[in-house]
């Protein structure tokens, strides 16, 4: 009995300590926005020696107005314009393709599924040049089409595989019952399967949101106008505008950049964990 009573306290203590370790970088970034460069690099304390009560949000104001002629609000808007359609089209298109692989039989189905999975093995360094030449010939450079159009055509095999695994775990009896009630193939997908697939859809959308929101390398290749830079590149060029970088301003904008990701993961973590646990991707 005593061992059973002690075990929950030990588990909670370990979880609290682990949570503090995980959240420490975010807390350090938060308090660094209230410090000057000398204190950021010269002190190991997480708390500022002197809190700027006169203007506590000076770093946030300076960063949001922009260290260049372009404000950080422009980078935020560019990131939203690039991310939201990419996430929506990814979830829609990958759901349709996964439904086809999981519920329909067609010639060479296993072959095409293997070909689709084999593209997961291709590193980005191998396909970056062919993709650049393709997008250049289509006139898509310096736009967000290299991110949005592939999402429209389900060019993300990881999400297709994840959704296929989830659909295979849904009993086919639901499909047969809906078919007896007069549902077409599309009706079965939209009225029966998609409501049940909500956890997996949330997981796919959250993954794609994080990857696109933090995109740096591909944007650096395909987008060449500073006016169209997303947050990752906007934050980077803010450190190149002067030899004396105000790191409290950089930390403030970095914190605002990751804040949407933290909030979305916090509010959608139940669906995220459930989706991962039911798609065959758990460890």
Can you tell me about this structure?
This protein is an all-alpha fold and 283 residues long. The protein has one domain: MetI-like fold. It is 72% helix and 0% strand. The chain is globular, with a radius of gyration of 24 Å. The mean pLDDT is 85. Belongs to the binding-protein-dependent transport system permease family. This is Carbohydrate ABC transporter permease. Pfam families: BPD_transp_1. One of its GO terms (cellular component) is plasma membrane. It comes from Paenibacillus thalictri.
Distance between the first and last residues' Cα: 32 Å
Structural class determined from secondary elements: mainly alpha
The third-level CATH topology is MetI-like fold
The strand count comes to: 0
Radius of gyration: 24 Å
CATH architecture, by name, is Orthogonal Bundle
Shape: globular
CATH superfamily, by name, is MetI-like
Could you list the spans in which at least 5 consecutive residues all have pLDDT below 50?
none
Portion in strands: under 5%
Helices, by number, come to 14
Return the CATH class: Mainly Alpha
Helix-strand pattern = HHHHHHHHHHHHHH
Integer count of domains:
1
Can you summarize the main beta sheet?
A: none
The residue-averaged pLDDT reads 85
* Percent helix range: over 70%
Protein name: Carbohydrate ABC transporter permease
Family: Belongs to the binding-protein-dependent transport system permease family.
Membrane topology: Multi-pass membrane protein
Keywords: Cell membrane, Membrane, Transmembrane, Transmembrane helix, Transport
């Amino acid at each position: 009995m005593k061992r059973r009573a002690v075990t929950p306290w030990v588990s909670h203590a370990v979880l609290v300590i682990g949570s503090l370790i995980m959240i420490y970088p975010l807390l350090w970034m938060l308090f660094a926005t209230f410090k000057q460069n000398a204190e950021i690099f010269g002190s190991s304390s997480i708390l500022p020696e002197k809190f700027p009560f006169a203007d506590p949000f000076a770093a946030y104001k300076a960063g949001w107005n922009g260290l260049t002629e372009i404000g950080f609000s422009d980078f935020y808007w560019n990131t939203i314009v690039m991310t939201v359609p990419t996430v929506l089209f990814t979830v829609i298109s990958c759901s349709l393709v996964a439904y086809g692989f999981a519920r329909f039989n067609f010639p060479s189905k296993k072959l095409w599924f293997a070909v689709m999975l084999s593209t997961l093995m291709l590193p980005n360094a191998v396909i970056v040049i062919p993709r650049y030449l393709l997008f250049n010939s289509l006139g898509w450079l310096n736009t967000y089409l290299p991110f949005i159009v592939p999402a429209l055509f389900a060019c993300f095999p990881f999400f297709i595989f994840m959704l296929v695994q989830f659909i295979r775990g849904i009993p086919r009896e639901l499909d047969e019952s809906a078919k007896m009630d007069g549902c077409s193939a599309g009706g079965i997908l939209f009225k029966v399967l998609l409501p049940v697939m909500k956890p997996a859809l949330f997981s796919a959308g959250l993954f794609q949101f994080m990857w696109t929101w933090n995109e740096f390398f591909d944007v650096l290749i395909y987008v060449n106008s500073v006016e169209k830079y997303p947050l990752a590149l906007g934050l980077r060029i803010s450190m190149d505008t002067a030899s004396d970088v105000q790191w409290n301003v950089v930390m403030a904008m970095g914190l605002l950049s990751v804040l949407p990701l933290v909030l979305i993961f916090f509010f959608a973590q139940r669906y995220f964990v459930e989706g991962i646990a039911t798609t065959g991707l758990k460890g």
